[in-house]
Amino acid sequence: MSTPQGREARPVARRGMAFRRNSRIALPTPEQSRRQASVVQSAWRHFGEPGPVIAFLNTPHAVVEGQPLHLAIESDEGLARVEALLKQMTPRT
């Protein structure tokens, strides 16, 4: 196939997922993934809608001294603190 200027068109090479192999961000450990899933499930059961769940997990709370999602992922103790905060909050109606 030729281009309007008479040069041959070359197929564009696909890059695929190569950028992920060179990522410098560490993947979560199995324990971190377990805690993340647990806190998301707890928040979902409490709020029942995606908007409030996302807002709760990403908004810093003075009671737990940080963002619930980050605290829960860090340690089992952080997960317990976030779940205790959820229990103290007024449940959805």
What does it look like?
By secondary structure, the chain is mostly helical. It has a domain of 60 residues. It has five helices and no strands. Helix 2 crosses helix 3, helix 2 packs parallel to helix 5 and helix 4 packs antiparallel against helix 5. The termini are far apart. The mean pLDDT is 85.
Descriptive tags:
mainly alpha; 55% helix; single chain
Topology:
Layout: H1 18-21, H2 30-47, H3 50-58, H4 68-74, H5 76-88
Helix pairs in contact: 2-3, 2-4, 2-5, 4-5
The average pLDDT is 85
Beta-strand content estimate? under 5%
Gross morphology? elongated
Termini separation = 64 Å
Q: What's the number of helices?
A: 5
H-E string = HHHHH
Q: Major beta sheet, specifics?
A: none
Range of helix content? 40-55%
Structural class: mainly alpha
- Which segments are poorly predicted (pLDDT under 50) over 5 or more consecutive residues? none
Rg, Å, rounded: 22 Å
Total number of beta strands: 0
Question: What's this entry about, in short?
Answer:
55% of the residues lie in helices and 0% in strands.
